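In this section we turn from sequence analysis to structure. A common task in structural bioinformatics is to predict how a protein folds when a small molecule is present, because the ligand can shape the pocket around it. The inputs are simple: the amino acid sequence and a SMILES string for the ligand, here coenzyme A. Study the lines below before reading on.
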Amino acid sequence: MPKAILLGSKSMLCKREIDIAQGQRGDYNGIILVLRRSYPYPEDPEVIRQNLLFSQNVVAKVGSRIVGSVSYTNVRVSKGEVVETPRYRKNKMYYVWGLAVLPEYRRRGIAARLVREAERDMYRKKANGYFGNAFSEEVAQWWVCMFGVRLRRLALDRLMTAGVPFEKRFRQEGFFEDLKTKCRELMSSLLTRTYTRAKTGIDESYKSRLH
Ligand SMILES: CC(C)(COP(=O)(O)OP(=O)(O)OC[C@H]1O[C@@H](n2cnc3c(N)ncnc32)[C@H](O)[C@@H]1OP(=O)(O)O)[C@@H](O)C(=O)NCCC(=O)NCCS
């Protein structure tokens, strides 16, 4: 049988086996297990449980076993009270965390399906987008490629944390976003031109001094 047909039937089979759904309280132990197996320095299980309690969680299941999950939240605990996070209050941006798939289930598109479901839910809840912190440069590029997130390399609020901060907006901003891009382009072309002119001037004066 041709290889392409074999591969096709395998991936279709995997898709049917893996169930993507909103996580329930009974799923917490399974999610904690996935996170503890996926991250080199996982949080304490009780801390994860607390965070899960204040988040919405999407899980990937094979039968009753949890093999992957992603969480997102718009609240945090402050002085013993559950309050909206500042970025949600200001911009309706959710915080996405805890994306993980068990090693033996990776590279089957499970993470992409988890995030797609989380995005769909956040969008339905009228969020403007989400932000997060990619574990590594490679994972950050995965977010860019799969979900078109924007990496925020100069995010001052996150310069001290490890990882690559990113964000995604569900709506394209209008006139001012365009204006910002145009200004950036103009500035960069002006700087390039000034630099080229200065460099040519220096080169010429150096050459004339040599002769
Ligand atoms: C990151 C992680 C969640 C991905 O899970 P996954 O289910 O294997 O992801 P998917 O199958 O949806 O996506 C993998 C595919 O994305 C594509 N991909 C990945 N990086 C890419 C990139 N930079 N450019 C283009 N495509 C890319 C590839 O096609 C890859 O499949 P391939 O390796 O077979 O070619 C998983 O590796 C994991 O749990 N890692 C440890 C914890 C972690 O780093 N979490 C992320 C925190 S932000």
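Confidence is low (pLDDT under 50) at residues 1-10. As an exercise, try to locate the residues that line the coenzyme A site and compare them with your own expectations.
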